Amino acid sequence: MTATKKQKAAPAPVSIRKPQLxxxxxxxxxxxxxRKALAEKAKVDPAGCTEYLGSDDAATRKANDKxxxxxxxxxxxxxxxxxxxxxxxxxxxxxxxxxxxKAQ
Length: 104
Known about the structure:
By secondary structure, this protein is mainly alpha-helical. The protein contains 6 helices and 3 strands; from the N terminus they run αβααααββα. Strands 1-3-2 form a 3-stranded antiparallel sheet. It is globular, with a radius of gyration of 16 Å.
Protein backbone atom coordinates (compact mmCIF):
# COMPACT_ATOMS: atom_id res chain seq x y z
CA MET A 1 0.00 0.00 0.00
CA THR A 2 1.29 3.45 -0.81
CA ALA A 3 1.45 6.27 1.69
CA THR A 4 -1.24 8.18 -0.20
CA LYS A 5 -3.90 5.49 0.15
CA LYS A 6 -5.72 5.32 3.45
CA GLN A 7 -6.96 2.11 4.98
CA LYS A 8 -10.56 2.08 6.06
CA ALA A 9 -10.81 1.89 9.81
CA ALA A 10 -12.67 -1.08 11.17
CA PRO A 11 -16.03 -0.10 12.64
CA ALA A 12 -16.02 0.26 16.40
CA PRO A 13 -17.52 -2.73 18.18
CA VAL A 14 -21.10 -2.16 19.26
CA SER A 15 -21.54 -1.76 22.98
CA ILE A 16 -24.93 -1.76 24.65
CA ARG A 17 -26.06 -0.94 28.18
CA LYS A 18 -26.76 -3.68 30.75
CA PRO A 19 -30.53 -3.02 30.69
CA GLN A 20 -30.46 -3.36 26.89
CA LEU A 21 -28.72 -6.72 27.26
CA UNK A 22 -31.42 -7.85 29.71
CA UNK A 23 -34.09 -6.79 27.22
CA UNK A 24 -32.42 -8.83 24.46
CA UNK A 25 -32.08 -11.86 26.76
CA UNK A 26 -35.75 -11.63 27.73
CA UNK A 27 -36.94 -11.34 24.13
CA UNK A 28 -34.78 -14.32 23.17
CA UNK A 29 -36.25 -16.45 25.97
CA UNK A 30 -39.88 -15.33 26.02
CA UNK A 31 -40.60 -14.09 22.50
CA UNK A 32 -42.44 -10.99 21.26
CA UNK A 33 -43.75 -8.69 23.98
CA UNK A 34 -45.11 -5.20 24.53
CA ARG A 35 -42.84 -2.55 26.01
CA LYS A 36 -44.68 -2.71 29.36
CA ALA A 37 -44.51 -6.51 29.63
CA LEU A 38 -40.89 -6.52 28.52
CA ALA A 39 -39.88 -3.90 31.11
CA GLU A 40 -41.55 -5.94 33.85
CA LYS A 41 -40.08 -9.27 32.77
CA ALA A 42 -36.55 -7.90 32.19
CA LYS A 43 -36.68 -5.82 35.38
CA VAL A 44 -35.92 -2.60 33.50
CA ASP A 45 -37.28 0.86 34.32
CA PRO A 46 -40.32 1.29 32.04
CA ALA A 47 -39.52 4.98 31.48
CA GLY A 48 -36.03 4.06 30.28
CA CYS A 49 -37.39 1.68 27.66
CA THR A 50 -37.94 4.55 25.26
CA GLU A 51 -34.18 5.05 25.14
CA TYR A 52 -33.22 1.37 25.53
CA LEU A 53 -35.58 -0.05 22.91
CA GLY A 54 -36.19 3.05 20.82
CA SER A 55 -39.15 5.30 20.30
CA ASP A 56 -41.88 4.29 17.85
CA ASP A 57 -41.44 7.70 16.24
CA ALA A 58 -38.37 7.67 13.97
CA ALA A 59 -37.51 11.36 14.53
CA THR A 60 -37.73 10.98 18.31
CA ARG A 61 -35.66 7.79 18.18
CA LYS A 62 -32.96 9.51 16.12
CA ALA A 63 -32.84 12.45 18.55
CA ASN A 64 -32.66 10.12 21.56
CA ASP A 65 -29.93 8.05 19.92
CA LYS A 66 -27.87 11.19 19.41
CA UNK A 67 -28.56 12.56 22.89
CA UNK A 68 -28.10 9.31 24.85
CA UNK A 69 -26.95 6.14 23.05
CA UNK A 70 -28.12 3.95 20.14
CA UNK A 71 -31.37 2.13 20.82
CA UNK A 72 -31.87 -1.58 20.14
CA UNK A 73 -34.23 -0.75 17.26
CA UNK A 74 -31.68 1.63 15.68
CA UNK A 75 -28.96 -1.01 16.03
CA UNK A 76 -31.20 -3.51 14.24
CA UNK A 77 -31.26 -5.86 17.25
CA UNK A 78 -34.99 -5.44 17.92
CA UNK A 79 -37.96 -4.87 15.64
CA UNK A 80 -41.13 -3.12 16.79
CA UNK A 81 -44.41 -3.99 15.08
CA UNK A 82 -47.69 -2.21 15.73
CA UNK A 83 -51.22 -2.94 14.65
CA UNK A 84 -54.09 -0.47 14.59
CA UNK A 85 -54.82 0.71 18.10
CA UNK A 86 -52.70 -1.94 19.79
CA UNK A 87 -49.43 -1.42 21.67
CA UNK A 88 -46.23 -2.05 19.75
CA UNK A 89 -44.87 -5.57 20.09
CA UNK A 90 -41.09 -6.02 20.10
CA UNK A 91 -39.13 -9.05 18.92
CA UNK A 92 -35.46 -9.87 18.68
CA UNK A 93 -33.96 -9.93 15.18
CA UNK A 94 -31.34 -12.34 13.81
CA UNK A 95 -28.73 -9.57 14.33
CA UNK A 96 -29.88 -9.28 17.95
CA UNK A 97 -29.55 -13.04 18.44
CA UNK A 98 -26.04 -12.96 16.96
CA UNK A 99 -25.02 -10.08 19.22
CA UNK A 100 -26.49 -11.84 22.25
CA UNK A 101 -24.65 -15.08 21.47
CA LYS A 102 -21.34 -13.21 21.23
CA ALA A 103 -22.03 -11.23 24.42
CA GLN A 104 -22.70 -14.32 26.54
